Amino acid sequence: MSVRKWVYGGCAFATIAMFGSCINHAPDEVGAEGVTSTEGVTSTYSPQPTQTRTKYQDIWVGRVLSYPEIFSSPRLEIELEDGTTRVIEAAHTRRLYCRGTGELEAIGDRLRELTPIGSTITFVRGASTGWFGSDDDAGFIHLPENGRAATVEPFGDSVNEMLLREGRVDIADPTVNLSVMTGKALSAAQYERAPNESPNREYWSALVGAYTDAWDGRLNIQADCRHADDLAVVERDQRDAIDRIRKGPDGLYGTEDDDHNFYEFDIDGNLSIKVPEYSSDSGGSGSSGGGWGSGGGGFCRSRWC
Question: Which of 92, 68, 89, 66 is nearest to 79 (CA)?
C-alpha cells in the first residue's frame, strides 16, 4: 500500500506542478502597467511597411504596360507592385498648339523612348487628378538610375521636366505666358497662381525653369510658338507706329494735326501710304473713302476718317 500511495502521490504532484506552470506563465508576461512585456521574447510577426493600399500611397513604383491615347497631357498605363493597374498623367504639362498638327504624336514618340514597355518608373502622386476630372492620377514621373530598377526614392529630373525642357509640351495648371505681349515681368509670370499644395509646389520652380529654357532656345515645337509670337510682336509694333503717325505731333486723335493718310507695311516691313484704287465706275471719287484700306481710299479729306 505504501508503494502505491507514493506512486499516486508522485503522479498527482507532477500533474499539479505542470498545471501550475501553465497558470503562472501568463502573469509573468504582463508588466506593471498591464502591457505585455517583450523582454526575452522573440517574435516571428513581420509587420507590413504600410497598412495603406498601394493605390492610395503617395509614391508608386510601377511597370509600364501601355500608352493610352493622349488628349492633352502625356499618359502611361502602369502596373503597381500589388498587381493593380492605373493610368497616370504628367502633371503641369499639356500639348502645345503652335504647330497645328503632330503635337500629340511627338509627345507619344518621346514618351515611348523614355519609358519603354516593361520598364519601371517611380511616380510621385500630385495634389490633383488628371485633366477634365478624369480618373487618371496626375503627378511626377521619374526614370530609374541607369541599369537599375525603380524604387520609391525618385531619381533625377522628372519626365515632366524633361518634356518641358525639350520644348515638346506646354506648362499648365497654371499656364505661364512668356510672350513679351503680356507686358509682365518674367518673375511675375513664373509664379503667378503657382500651386500651393505639396508635392506640386516643390516641383514648380524646376518646371518653370525648364519651360523657360525651351522658350528661349526655340526648341522643337516651342520654335513654332516663338515664330508666331515674333509675328504678333511685329504686327503690334507696326500698328503702334501707324497710330503715332496718324495722331500727329500732339499724340492725340481728333485734333487738327491728325494725319489722315492710310499707311501700311509691306512684307519686308517698309512703310508706305496706301494708294487709292480707282475703278471705271468710281467717277474719280475714290479719294473720299475711309477706314484702314477699305473703300480704296488712300487719302481722307474728312477730319473723322
Answer: 66
> Residue 217 contacts by C-beta under 8 Å, 6 or more apart in sequence?
167
pLDDT computed for residue 282 by the predictor = 47
- Is residue 173 classed exposed, middle or buried when 0-12, 13-18 and 19+ CB atoms within 10 A define those classes? middle
Average model confidence (pLDDT) across the chain: 75
Point out the least confidently predicted range of 29-43, 120-134, 277-291: 29-43
Residue 237 has pLDDT above 90, yes or no: no
* Contact (Cβ atoms closer than 8 angstroms) between residue 219 and residue 167: yes
**122: domain range?**
54-223
What's the rounded Cα separation, in Å, for the pair 305 and 293?
11
Average pLDDT (51-68) is 82
**Do 101 and 163 belong to one domain?**
yes
Query: Bridge-partner residues for 273, per DSSP?
Result: 263
Boundary of a domain, candidates 223, 245, 273: 223
Q: What is the Cα–Cα distance from 18 to 196, expressed in whole angstroms?
A: 67
Helix, strand, coil % (nearest 5) of the chain?
Answer: 35, 15, 45
In a domain, 228, yes or no: no
Cα–Cα distance, 62 to 263 (Å, whole number): 62
Residues 80 and 181 in one domain: yes
Residues 195 and 271 in one domain: no
- Check: pTM over 0.85? Answer yes or no: no
Q: Domains in the chain: how many in total?
A: 2
Angle, vertex CA 59, rays to CA 55 and CA 65, nearest 5: 65
In a domain, 39, yes or no: no
Specify which residues 78 forms β-bridges with: 64, 86
